[in-house]
Fold this sequence. Notes:
Blueprint: H1 3-11, E1 17-20, H2 26-37, E2 42-46, H3 49-59, E3 67-69, H4 77-88, H5 95-101, H6 105-115, E4 120-123, H7 132-139, E5 149-156, E6 159-164, H8 174-190, E7 196-200, H9 211-226, E8 231-236, H10 238-242, H11 244-250, E9 262-264, H12 268-280, E10 285-292, E11 298-300, H13 307-322
Amino acid sequence: MGFMDDVRQRVRGKGMRVVLAEGTEERAVRAAATVAGQGLCQPVLLGPRDQVAAVAQAAGVSLEGVIVRDPAQDPDRARLAARYQELRKHKGMTLEQAHEVTAKPNYFAALLVEAGDADGFVSGLTSACKPFIPAFEIVKLAAGYQRVSSVFVMEWPERVLFYADCSVNIAPDAALLAQIGAATAATARAFGHEPRVAFLSFSTRASAEHESVDRVREAAAACRAAHPELLVDGELQFDAAFVPGVAAKKCADSPLAGKANVFVFPDLNAGNIAYKISERLAGATAIGPILQGLRRPVNDVSRGCSAQDLADVATVTAAQAMG
């Protein structure tokens, strides 16, 4: 059974409420119809009802089982505005300003999640509706986390790997890299995969010396110290982390033994390039990015994602909400 097959089986019929903030986008309408039709979650599309209905009609898509809410007209807007004002009063937020902000779909979605009226939300189809700021301001970080990070689930017919961080943190220091490793291990475990965490570098066991190598080595040590229950190693080159025969030659004492499934890249350049190469040249299916470190699930999607990609991320969001 593939990764998404397993996730779908886990969430089907559970009724988790996932908001798709860009409800007037055809891809969002199609994704909502897909997850509703398959019983994967209860989708909530945000936008003027007549516009959402018109998009659905033009696309030949049924909205049966789909909830549509218009932030500008919603009866809960005053309650959510009061909550947002309370959350941001230390920044001088007035109730009038909060009322205006809650008309923005991604803020309205985040407030629904924070209030417990929804279990998670997804946005990002347009550059104007990226979820990061409302997620940070409203949903906020989970205990023990200083930053949000992301992971891509990379799936082939014969394997599932976890790549982090490929979309959020540009140049993480050693402490943040260690946290990314721990967060990604927790994500892998939550989806039924026992994590084996490799902190990647162009060096294996001090085969090269550079401050960037030192940073990766320090991150691996910090992650190992904070989470002694995890199998962690680094710094490792990719082949030493992934190929048992190479590991036997380069790092025979590695607890990973060349069988890592969680790969922590040293910076965003490396992570983003690696996942796209894996997808485009090695035939992997990239699922994500999945955000890590928030109190409740919020996920961003690429502006170029398909309706099926969005449906998959909504399904993953429902699984995250289940714990």
